[in-house]
Design brief:
The structure is a single chain. The protein is α/β, with parallel strands linked by helices. The chain has 13 helices and 22 strands. It has helices at 12-24, 38-49, 92-102, 123-131, 174-184, 202-209, 257-269, 288-295, 329-333, 339-348, 368-378, 409-422, 441-452; strands spanning 2-7, 28-35, 53-58, 66-72, 86-87, 108-112, 135-141, 150-158, 166-168, 189-195, 214-217, 235-241, 250-252, 273-281, 299-305, 312-318, 326-327, 351-355, 382-386, 389-394, 401-404, 426-429. Strand 7 and strand 8 (150-158) form a beta hairpin. The longest helix is centred in the C-terminal third of the chain and has 14 residues, at 409-422. The protein is globular, with a radius of gyration of 21 Å. Bound molecules: shikimate-3-phosphate. Residues 13, 93, 173-175, 178, 199-200, 336-337, 360 line the site of shikimate-3-phosphate.
Length: 453
């Protein structure tokens, strides 16, 4: 058996939050192993434009996404009005979470994005912020199948005095939850957010290490594991504002499990292969893809390590025969960014995989149901889509094809992994987007290709 040890880039979600909380806390925050991908650069530039000094203290090489930085926090209301609109590129996380912080500042600002970001729905954060008393608006457009008009970037926000709310979110979204909790830091009283299934809790964990007390209700973690409708309970989290954040001094960011997922699936499908992925974040709100793959028969084991911020450890994957499974909406939430590569795994599994509650995939960097289904069908896959449900008939013979990234990093990487395990030519156009989360992906893929051929 051939073995390879790899390191994946630092976690994108945690990297954004470390910069954001470091910027508005009192004191200096040293962030070790920060992802230096395109989206994180946008977050850094946005805070620099608002007067925060952020130094890049160690950058191993221009191609290496792992950097150390120092953020000189300006305090909760210390940000300055930027000279012009903040351009956030393709970063949906910055566009949706940053307004929570801007809601508490004493100036107005416009947030803009690229063509893809300008098509991403923002009503989910605009409505709760309006309830908190924030003056915020965006471009209102009618969308097919939705009664009320949707709101899109550019977004204009006038920060100021705001009031707390209790928000009951219909969708499980960490971006929505984070935006409201961060706005709640500036409001006097209790701000709470409930959601149908607990979304990733990086903001809550990071707020705690910045000295904020939060209360979380136990419900809603994995509803499919509950015994019946009666013990299904929404997941909730609350904090009492106003809060002043204090820098914890040093934060170390683990590897991104969403990036690791590409090589975990490759390791499952490639025969006689063992892939060890070092220091990957293993937060249970993020490890849905590992649970799904194990259910499919994958041979995955862990070497966990202790950390005060986030659980993390090494992941060891060996080749195994995968079988089709049923994936529930709660599992989709915990694997939301890994669903494209799970669709690839489903094509290689024996039998049928049914994915329920996949609707949120339609509003990512691209419509990921459309991008993945179109691409995989071009390779000969058999997939049926009905509303929010996908049915993949695995084990069909697949062949090479010319496909598109649709400008989406995870579609691009998923298709390249499909090409790697098939050992046939998959030409993927538009690979620049990979730098959003995984600079160095192509080199790592090549290392594994050389080992297997
Ligand atoms: C993210 C939350 C998820 C995820 C995105 C990053 C975050 O989005 O898809 O890539 O960092 O909070 P939703 O909150 O829309 O589910």
């Amino acid at each position: 058996m051939k073995a390879i040890k790899i390191v994946v880039p630092p976690d994108k979600s945690i990297s954004h939050r470390a910069i954001m909380l470091g910027s508005i806390s009192k004191g200096t925050t040293r962030i070790k192993n920060l992802l230096m991908g395109d989206d994180i650069r946008r977050t850094i530039e946005a805070f620099r434009a608002m007067g925060v000094s952020i130094e890049i203290t160690s950058s191993p090489s221009s191609a290496d996404p792992r950097n150390d930085i120092v953020v000189h926090g300006v305090g909760m209301r210390g940000l300055k009005k930027p000279g012009k609109a903040l351009y956030l590129g393709n970063s949906g996380t910055t566009m949706r979470i940053l307004p929570g912080i801007l809601a508490g500042q004493d100036f107005e600002v416009v947030l803009k994005g690229d063509t893809s970001l300008s098509k991403r729905p923002m009503r989910r954060i605009v409505e709760p912020l309006v309830k908190m008393g924030v003056r915020i608006s965006g471009k209102r457009l009618k969308v097919k199948g939705i009664k009320e008009k949707e709101i899109f970037p550019p977004i204009e926000i006038h920060g100021g005095r705001i009031k707390p709310i209790r928000h009951n979110s219909k969708i499980a979204s960490a971006q929505v939850k984070s935006c409201i909790l961060l706005a709640g830091l500036f409001a006097k009283g209790i701000t709470s957010v409930t959601e149908p299934v607990r979304s990733r809790d990086h903001t809550e964990r990071m707020l705690r290490i910045f000295g904020c007390r939060l209360k979380a209700s136990p419900g809603g973690v994995y509803p499919e594991q509950s015994r019946g409708a009666r013990d299904r309970q929404d997941s909730g989290v609350s904090l009492r504002g106003p809060v002043r954040l204090r820098s914890p001094q040093t934060i170390e960011i683990p590897g991104d499990v969403s990036s690791a997922a590409f090589f975990i699936v490759a390791g499952c499908i490639l025969p006689d292969m063992k892939i060890i992925i070092k220091n990957v974040g293993l937060n249970p709100t993020r490890t849905g893809s590992l649970d799904i793959l194990k259910k499919m028969g994958a041979d995955i084991s862990f070497r966990p390590r202790a950390s005060s911020l986030e659980p993390y450890g090494d992941i060891i994957v060996k080749g195994a025969d995968l079988k089709g499974v049923r994936i529930s909406p709660g599992e989709v939430v915990r694997a939301i960014d890994e669903m494209p590569i799970i669709m690839v795994a489903a094509c290689f599994a024996k039998g049928v995989t049914v994915i329920h509650g996949a609707g949120e995939l339609r509003v990512k960097e691209t419509d990921r149901i459309n991008s993945m289904v179109t691409n995989l069908k071009k390779m000969g896959a058999e997939i049926e889509v009905k509303g929010e449900r996908l049915k993949v008939r695995g084990g069909r013979p697949l062949h090479g094809a010319r496909v598109s990234s649709y400008g989406d990093h995870r579609t691009a990487m998923s298709m390249l992994v499909a090409g790697l395990v098939l050992k046939c030519r998959i030409k993927v156009t538009g690979l620049g987007c990979i730098n959003k989360s995984f600079p160095g992906f192509l080199d790592l893929l090549e290392d594994i290709r050389l080992l297997t051929h």
